[in-house]
């Protein structure tokens, strides 16, 4: 009897066993990927642990050749170089904080996830049927920790925020937003207007007053917003030029219901001496040149 048991154990050991660990790991709640989709997203989890100084140096250096070049470069302590280095660090930090989080969107939905993304910049958001909301530093939001279809964004106010093109990626799939206020944003430029026009097709009110990096070329993208009826371009020096005024005229010609604020159109003198023949289509303009 014992010999038969040994033979059975040998046979079972010889049969290839199914990799249960690999199958179970796919559905194991301890698995990071599954745990991310099952556990409600929390605002504090969005902050990752910063790497150390040498880890950051090695990561930024890349290959060994680049690392040797980095270590052999003399340190320049001039004020202009230090200022340039500090500005690059601030720019990299801003891009990291404004990064589009696909996992957060999958857990919370586009509307609630966008609210968290804009709150990190100090912006305000307005949900349908609710008051304006702004998250103060050190406080937790009262938004649900999972997707809720009743929370639909209607308006966003990012005035004065240092938002970049990367931060505007949070505007994806926000079909209910009809108002966007972006006054005095130092980094809003023509590329930002392009992503606004491509994502917020239901936009009705757009305020980019004080955004001094916007040029007439960026206004061309706004023709793709069919329901836009109010556009504030106050305190935009590049739009007060002849090209800017011409672009505004073309926008209003393309969208007759569009009301543009902050642009002073030149007075066109009226000449009562000009006669137009409807039949021939010829204008009879008396000569103003002295004989």
From TrEMBL:
GO cellular component: mitochondrion; SCF ubiquitin ligase complex
Highest taxon of the lineage: Eukaryota
One GO biological process term: mitochondrial respiratory chain complex I assembly
Protein name (record): Mitochondrial ATP synthase regulatory component factor B
Pfam hit, one: LRR_6
InterPro entries: Leu-rich_rpt, LRR_dom_sf
């Amino acid at each position: 009897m014992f010999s038969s048991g040994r033979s059975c154990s040998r046979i079972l050991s010889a049969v290839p066993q199914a990799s249960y660990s690999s199958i179970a790991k796919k559905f194991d709640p301890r698995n990071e990927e599954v745990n991310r989709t099952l556990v409600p997203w929390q605002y504090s989890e969005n902050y990752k642990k910063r790497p150390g100084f040498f880890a950051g140096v090695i990561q930024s250096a890349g290959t060994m050749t680049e690392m040797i070049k980095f270590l052999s470069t003399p340190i320049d302590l001039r004020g202009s170089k230090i200022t340039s280095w500090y500005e690059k660090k601030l720019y990299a930090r801003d891009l990291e904080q404004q990064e589009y989080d696909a996992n957060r969107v999958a857990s919370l939905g586009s509307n609630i996830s966008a609210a968290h993304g804009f709150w990190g910049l100090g912006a305000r958001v307005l949900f349908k049927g609710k008051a304006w909301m702004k998250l103060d530093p050190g406080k937790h939001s009262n938004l649900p920790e999972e997707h809720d279809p009743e929370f639909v964004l209607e308006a966003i106010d990012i005035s004065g925020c240092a938002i970049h093109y990367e931060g505007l990626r949070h505007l994806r799939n926000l079909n209910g937003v009809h108002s966007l206020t972006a006054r005095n944003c130092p980094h809003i430029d023509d590329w930002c207007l392009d992503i606004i026009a491509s994502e917020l097709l239901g936009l009705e009110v757009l305020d980019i007053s004080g955004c001094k990096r916007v040029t007439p070329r960026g206004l061309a993208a706004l023709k793709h917003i069919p329901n836009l009826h109010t556009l504030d371009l106050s305190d935009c020096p590049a739009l007060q030029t002849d090209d800017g005024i011409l672009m505004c005229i073309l926008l209003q010609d393309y969208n007759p219901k569009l009301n543009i604020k902050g642009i002073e159109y030149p007075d066109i003198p009226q000449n009562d001496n000009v006669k137009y023949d409807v039949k021939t289509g010829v204008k009879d303009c008396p000569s103003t040149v002295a004989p």
